[in-house]
Amino acid sequence: MLEFNLLDHTLFSTRLTRQDITNELGRTLPTEDSCYRIRLLVDPDSNMHIEYIQLTEPEFSYMSLDEVTNTEPIWNVVLDTEPISKDPNDPFIVHKTTKRDVYNNARERTRCDWHATDDQPFDVILWNKDKHVTETSIANIAIRCVEGEKYRWKTPKLECGLLPGVFRAFLLLHNQDLVEDVITVDELKDAQKRGHPIVCFNSVRKLYRVNLLDN
């Protein structure tokens, strides 16, 4: 853990700059104008390795909460059967790394399938020991709540234990009706029961509605 916390100062031989990364992307990616999912790995010697997959335009993804609200859920999700066992402040949760045991184990427990059909779950929703929702195995999450005569969107607070995704930051910056707050497991179930939108989002798929299955 100490090594992880010191990685900016001691684990890399040189500190990569934004220009270093931009130059490597320019050398690696094809020149045609297209969209890619990119994975950038850096070893202790500051050597970069880039993996990429060309993407088609997602058919059911949206850039704004207003757009996604009036759509139908396109994927099924399920709650994990047990809370995350790690400290919510664990750096392997709040930073994106290749160590994904928490997410992979949750998907295995709940039998999630990347090619899910019918009533199969596509993704799993994680929660902590306080029964606070955190995130899914691949995305951040939000629900729309009714407060009096108004609607408000809530996404879990960082203190709950989650990866602060790039698209999550974008949505919080550009949507005054989206706030960071606690979402309990019971609140999530109630949102599904009442037909209130539950959405997931990341930088690849953007915003999409999900349907919470009973388990």
Structural descriptors:
215 residues, alpha/beta, D-amino Acid Aminotransferase, Chain A, domain 2, 2 domains, 28% strand, globular, Class-IV_PLP-Dep_Aminotrnsfr, catalytic activity, Aminotransferase-like, BCAT-like_C
Major sheet: arrangement of strands: 5-4-3-10-9-6-7-8
CATH topology (fold) name of the largest domain = D-amino Acid Aminotransferase, Chain A, domain 2
Which regions contain 5 or more consecutive residues with pLDDT less than 50?
none
CATH class of the largest domain: Alpha Beta
What's the name of the CATH homologous superfamily of the largest domain? D-amino Acid Aminotransferase, subunit A, domain 2
The CATH architecture designation of the largest domain is Alpha-Beta Barrel
User: Can you count the beta strands?
Assistant: 10
Distance between the termini: 35 Å
State Rg.
18 Å
Elements, N to C (H/E):
HHHEEHEHHEEEEHEHEE
Total domain modules: 2
Going by helix content, strand content and strand pairing, the class is: alpha/beta
Number of helices: 8
Largest sheet: 8 strands, mixed
The share of residues in helices is 25-40%
> Globular, elongated, flat, extended or rod-shaped: what is the shape?
globular
The residue-averaged pLDDT reads: 88
Give the DSSP E fraction (strand runs of 2 or more residues): 25-35%
